[in-house]
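Input C-alpha cells:
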C-alpha cells in the first residue's frame, strides 16, 4: 500500500467493512518507506510547512457519510499534536501523525484482517490464468494477490527533449562556468545542497514548490527571520546563501490563506455552480467549455461569497477595490506596456503586503479572502464539471494549462507567514524577481549562463548560473521512470487517460477507480487512487477534514466496494483472498 494518505484511506475503509465479509483477509502493504508517512518524511526540516491548518486534517472518518460501517475513531492532527486548530505544522510532524494513524488502524483492525508489511517497491505485475496477480518486489520477494490498489503518489518522469537540451548545454559549458547547473525539479530538496553560496540561482515558479526551494536556500543555510518594525520580519543571512531570482510565465505569485474563522462544517454552498445547473448544461451541450459555460457561474459564486461578508460591499469606499479584486481573481493577466524589472518587483512586494493584511482579517471578514476560501470549498463542484471528459478536449487543455494553476494559486496558498518572509528576503537583497510576466530562460553559449527575459519589461535581462524547476512532475504514464508503470503499460493492463486528442496525464480509470486496459474495458481487480489518476480526475492532492464528507474517503470507499464485488464473484474464494496495494518508489513532494 502506498504509504501516504491515499493508502491509509483504503486501509481505513477495509477495516470498516462488516466482519462477516470473509473469514480471513490478508493485506500486503508494499512501500519502501515507513507505512503511514509516505513521502511526508518525519525527518524533514521544520521550516517545510503544510499549507493546511492542523484542525482541518484527520485520517479518521467519523461523521463522513462516505464512510459507512465501522469507522475507527482517532484524533485529528491538531488533537494529536496538542496545538490549536489554526496552527500550520511542519510536514515532518504530519509524517509522524500519519505513521501514528497507521498504528491505530493496524491495532484496531478486525481479527479477520491480517496485515503484512513489505519495505520494498513493486517492480513488475503479471496475471495468472485465474486473473489474480503476482507482484515482484525490489527486494526479490514475490507477493500473490487477488486484488491490487495502486496508491503510489508522485513519481519521476524521464527528461523531456527540452530538458535534454538544457542538460547538454550545462555539460558543454560547465568548464567555462563551473557554477553552471540545471536542476530539473527541486525535489528532493537535498539536490539544492550542490548549489554554491554566492551563485546566481533562477527559480522557475512562484508557488508552493518555490517556497520550499527558497526556504531551503535561505533558512536551510543558516539564515534567520527576526521580528522587525510594524509586525514584519527582518532577515539575517547565514552567509552561505546564493543570490535567488524567482520568475514565472504567468507573473503570478502565491496568495496566502486567510486566518481561519470557519469550522470544517462551514462550507460555502454554491448558488450558481450547482449540481442541477451542471446537469442542465450537460444535457444541452454534452461536453462543456470551461470559459463559456462554467467560469461565469464560478465567478458569480465568488462574488456571492464576498458579498456574504456583510460589510457595505460594492458601496463607495474600500468595498469597490475588493469587488474589482474578486472580479479579476480568475482572469488571465493582460499584457501591459513594458515596465522596468524594478517596477514589477515593487508591485509584487506591494501585493504580498496587501494580501497579507487581507489574510489577517480572516476568511469570514475580508471579502477577497472569503471568495478565495469559497473557491477552495467549490472543488467538488469543479470536479463534477471537469472529470471523466466533462470538458471538450480544447477546453480541457486550456483548463489544465491556465486555469488549474490559477485556481491553486488563489485557493491553495501557504500560511501568511510566507508573505512576511518573502518581503523580508526581498528587502535583504537575497531574493529578487528574475523577470516580468511572460518570462523565459534563454541559453547563452557565449557567456555560459542562463538569461531570464520578458518581452513585457524594458530592463536588461537577468543572468544566472543555476536553473531550478520549482515544481513536482505530473504523472505521465508513458514518461514515468517506475518499473511498475512500465510493466502495467507493456502488459496492456493500463493506458494513459485521453480526452479526444488531449492527453492531460494519469491512468485511465472508471468511476470506481478501476484501471481501463488497452481494449477499453475495466480491469475488475485493480484500482488506482490519487495522483496517478490526475487527468481523469482533478485536484487529487488533498487531505480529509474532521466530521465532513471527503473526496478521499469517497474514492477509497468506491475502490474497496469494487474489491468486495470482485471477491464475492463465484470464481473467488474470499476466505483465501489476498489484497495488495503496490507503490513505486516515492519522493518528497510539496
Amino acid at each position: 500500500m502506498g504509504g501516504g494518505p491515499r493508502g491509509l484511506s483504503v486501509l481505513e475503509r477495509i477495516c470498516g467493512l462488516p466482519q462477516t465479509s470473509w473469514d480471513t483477509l490478508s493485506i500486503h502493504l508494499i512501500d519502501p518507506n515507513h507505512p503511514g508517512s509516505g513521502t511526508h518524511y518525519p525527518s524533514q526540516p521544520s521550516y517545510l510547512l503544510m499549507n493546511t491548518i492542523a484542525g482541518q486534517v484527520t485520517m479518521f472518518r467519523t461523521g463522513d457519510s462516505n464512510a459507512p460501517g465501522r469507522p475507527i475513531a482517532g484524533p485529528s492532527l491538531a488533537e494529536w499534536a496538542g496545538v490549536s486548530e489554526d496552527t500550520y505544522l511542519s510536514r515532518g510532524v504530519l509524517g509522524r501523525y500519519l505513521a501514528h494513524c497507521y498504528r491505530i488502524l493496524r491495532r484496531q483492525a478486525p481479527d479477520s484482517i491480517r496485515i503484512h508489511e513489505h519495505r520494498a517497491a513493486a517492480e513488475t505485475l503479471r496475471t495468472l490464468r485465474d486473473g489474480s496477480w503476482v507482484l515482484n518486489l525490489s527486494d526479490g520477494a514475490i507477493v500473490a494477490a487477488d486484488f491490487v490498489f495502486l496508491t503510489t503518489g508522485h513519481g519521476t518522469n524521464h527528461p523531456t527533449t527540452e530538458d535534454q537540451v538544457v542538460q547538454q548545454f550545462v555539460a558543454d559549458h560547465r568548464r567555462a562556468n563551473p557554477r553552471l547547473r540545471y536542476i530539473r525539479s527541486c525535489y528532493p530538496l537535498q539536490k539544492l545542497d550542490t548549489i554554491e553560496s554566492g551563485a546566481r540561482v533562477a527559480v522557475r515558479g512562484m508557488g508552493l514548490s518555490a517556497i520550499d526551494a527558497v526556504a531551503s536556500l535561505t533558512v536551510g543555510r543558516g539564515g534567520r527571520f527576526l521580528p522587525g518594525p510594524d509586525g514584519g520580519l527582518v532577515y539575517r543571512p547565514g552567509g552561505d546563501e546564493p543570490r535567488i531570482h524567482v520568475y514565472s510565465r504567468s507573473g503570478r505569485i502565491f496568495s496566502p490563506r486567510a486566518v481561519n474563522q470557519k469550522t470544517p462544517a462551514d462550507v460555502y454552498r454554491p448558488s450558481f455552480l450547482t449540481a442541477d445547473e451542471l446537469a442542465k448544461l450537460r444535457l444541452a451541450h454534452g461536453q462543456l467549455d470551461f470559459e463559456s459555460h462554467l467560469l461565469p457561474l464560478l465567478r458569480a459564486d465568488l462574488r456571492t461569497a464576498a458579498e456574504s461578508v456583510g460589510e457595505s460591499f460594492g458601496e463607495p469606499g474600500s468595498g469597490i477595490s475588493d469587488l474589482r479584486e474578486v472580479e479579476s481573481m480568475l482572469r488571465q493577466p493582460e499584457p501591459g506596456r513594458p515596465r522596468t524589472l524594478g517596477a514589477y518587483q515593487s508591485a509584487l512586494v506591494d501585493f504580498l503586503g496587501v494580501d497579507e493584511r487581507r489574510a489577517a482579517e480572516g476568511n469570514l471578514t475580508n471579502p477577497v479572502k472569503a471568495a478565495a476560501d469559497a473557491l477552495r470549498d467549490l472543488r467538488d463542484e469543479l470536479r463534477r464539471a471537469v472529470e471523466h471528459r466533462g470538458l471538450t478536449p480544447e477546453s480541457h487543455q486550456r483548463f489544465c494549462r491556465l486555469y488549474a494553476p490559477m485556481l491553486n494559486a488563489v485557493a491553495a496558498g501557504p500560511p501568511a507567514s510566507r508573505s512576511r518572509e518573502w518581503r523580508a528576503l526581498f528587502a535583504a537583497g537575497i531574493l529578487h524577481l528574475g523577470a516580468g510576466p511572460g518570462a523565459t530562460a534563454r541559453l547563452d553559449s557565449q557567456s555560459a549562463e542562463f538569461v531570464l527575459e520578458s518581452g513585457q519589461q524594458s530592463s536588461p535581462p537577468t543572468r544566472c548560473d543555476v536553473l531550478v524547476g520549482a515544481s513536482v512532475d505530473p504523472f505521465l504514464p508513458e514518461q514515468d521512470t517506475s518499473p511498475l508503470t512500465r510493466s502495467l503499460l507493456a502488459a496492456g493492463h493500463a493506458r494513459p487517460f485521453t480526452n479526444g486528442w488531449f492527453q492531460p496525464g494519469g491512468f485511465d480509470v472508471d468511476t470506481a477507480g478501476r484501471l481501463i486496459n488497452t481494449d477499453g474495458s475495466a480491469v475488475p481487480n485493480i484500482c488506482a487512487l490519487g495522483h496517478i489518476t490526475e487527468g481523469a480526475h482533478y485536484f487529487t492532492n488533498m487531505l480529509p477534514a474532521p466530521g465532513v464528507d471527503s473526496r478521499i474517503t469517497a474514492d477509497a470507499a468506491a475502490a474497496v466496494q469494487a474489491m468486495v464485488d470482485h471477491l464475492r464473484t463465484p470464481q473467488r474464494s474470499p476466505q483465501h483472498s489476498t489484497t495488495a496495494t503496490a507503490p513505486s518508489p516515492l519522493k518528497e513532494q510539496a
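Confidence is low (pLDDT under 50) at residues 312-318, 573-580, 582-590. DSSP finds 15 helices and 19 strands in the chain.
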